[in-house]
Specification:
The protein is of the alpha/beta class and 391 residues long. It has 12 helices and 17 strands. The strands form 4 sheets. It has a 7-stranded mixed beta sheet, sandwiched between helices. Strands 1-2-3-15 form a 4-stranded mixed beta sheet. Helix 10 runs parallel beside helix 12 and helix 11 packs across helix 12. The N and C termini lie far apart (43 Å). Bound molecules: pyridoxal-5'-phosphate. Pyridoxal-5'-phosphate binds next to helix 4.
């Protein structure tokens, strides 16, 4: 038997079935899923509308590169137009968040003729060489240097450091809520100053919404919380409802600097991906996903805060919408394992954060049950530790 390369820790769970906010193991045990495949299944597992659209597309055309027209690509563009901010009227589909980041970086260099790329400490943009180069967290880079030259990583949420963005800068790439880095939202003042500085020097602002986008934070895009807009929008994860697809959107000015042959992707924008994105946008709009995420997110956060307020190993709860983190004073591994044993799936962020990325349809019962399961694990972790061991 071949071995599957071990880049991820084995969570010791076989997911045999998945539907909406739940997954089941091989024995039929049901789990509440606040992991959603690193946030992918925000529209729920196997959302019936998306499954149906994919099945229909399989029976029509399964593969065609963008050299050929297919009806579903045009339909996908009409659907996307309803959720992509005005002005970002040129879109390309890729297959993963990292690939979309790669394209964004290439676009920035080509469109500006400049070379320097700026990103932020603690950020995560993916694991391909370009995306890794602008990733701020060192731990992902070790062993892979030298990476792409011309990158400067500056402190996140530090207005002073924005001076580094200058006339040589092609692009600045930012997550407005750092996901992998620990669920850390940008400050309002910082986001505003960043937008202003990028405009001042004529660079491009790339907003990486791979994790935050498509309703997750209680807005379609996280930048709507900040009243700013990107020059280059990067999205992935939730946009295909579980089908692997990502996108880059730019305005006409930027698009006019790009030529045929500047980029390509065999599978990018394939008919199945188009069908998935089209159906996902329809779900997003017709099921009021954004306002449901905002309401459920606020309730989840309130309940977490009140249940965990007195825990001596909890530093705090933070995040936006249904992208929440519980920062602990200890490593989160024990709490994550315990939660899984209690049939709640959560994941890690940064070094001490338990991250919650539930799908939009979680109910009040799910929220109450999930908070209690997590809180009991946190209580157990707290009681099992000698006071001197907490950091
Ligand atoms: C903000 C952000 N950008 C990029 C990526 C990379 O996406 P992918 O794993 O689909 O390549 C991720 C993945 O977690 C992400 O959270």
């Amino acid at each position: 038997m071949l071995n599957y390369l071990r880049f991820y820790e084995d969570r010791g769970l076989l997911i045999a079935r998945a539907e909406a906010q739940y997954v089941w193991d091989a024995e039929g045990n049901k789990y509440l899923d606040f992991h959603t495949g690193h946030g992918v299944a925000f529209l729920g597992h196997r959302n019936p509308r998306i499954v149906e659209a994919l099945k229909r597309q399989l029976d029509e055309v399964m593969t065609a590169t963008p050299s050929f027209r297919v009806r579903v690509r045009d339909e996908m563009l009409s659907a996307l137009e309803k959720v992509i901010p005005g002005g970002l009227d040129h879109v390309a589909l890729l297959n993963s968040g990292s690939e979309a980041v790669e394209l964004a970086l290439k676009i920035a260099r080509k469109a500006t003729g400049r070379r320097k790329l700026v990103s932020f400490t603690n950020s995560f943009h993916g694991r391909t060489m370009g995306a890794l180069s602008v990733t701020g967290s060192q731990k992902y880079k070790r062993g892979f240097e030298p990476l792409v030259p011309g990158v400067e990583v500056i402190p996140f949420n530090d207005v002073e450091s924005l001076k580094v963005i200058d006339g040589e800068t092609a692009a600045v790439i930012v997550e407005l809520v750092q996901g992998e880095g620990g669920v850390i939202p940008a400050d309002l003042e910082f986001a505003k100053a960043l937008r202003e500085r990028v405009d001042e020097v004529g660079a491009l602002l790339v907003i990486d919404e791979v994790q935050t986008g498509f309703g997750r934070t209680g807005r379609v895009w996280a930048f709507q919380h900040y009243n700013i807009k990107p020059d280059v929008l990067v999205a992935g994860k939730a946009i295909g409802g579980g089908f692997p697809v990502s996108l880059v959107a730019v305005g006409g000015d930027v698009a006019s600097k790009l030529d045929v042959g500047d980029h390509g992707s065999t599978y990018g924008g394939n008919p199945l991906a188009c069908a998935a994105v089209k159906a996902s946008v329809e779900v997003l709009i017709e099921d009021n996903v954004v306002s449901k995420a905002e309401t459920a997110g606020a309730m989840l956060r309130d309940k977490l805060e009140s249940r965990l307020r007195d825990s001596r190993i909890v530093r705090g709860v933070r995040g936006l919408g249904l992208m929440l983190g519980v920062e602990l004073r200890v490593l989160p591994t024990g709490v994550i394992k315990c939660s899984q044993a209690r049939r709640l799936l959560v994941l890690k962020a940064g070094s001490t954060v338990v991250r919650l990325l539930p799908p939009y349809m979680i109910t009040v019962d799910d929220i109450e049950w999930g908070v209690e399961a997590l809180a009991r694990c946190i209580d157990e972790e707290a009681s099992g530790r000698a006071p001197g061991k907490t950091g």
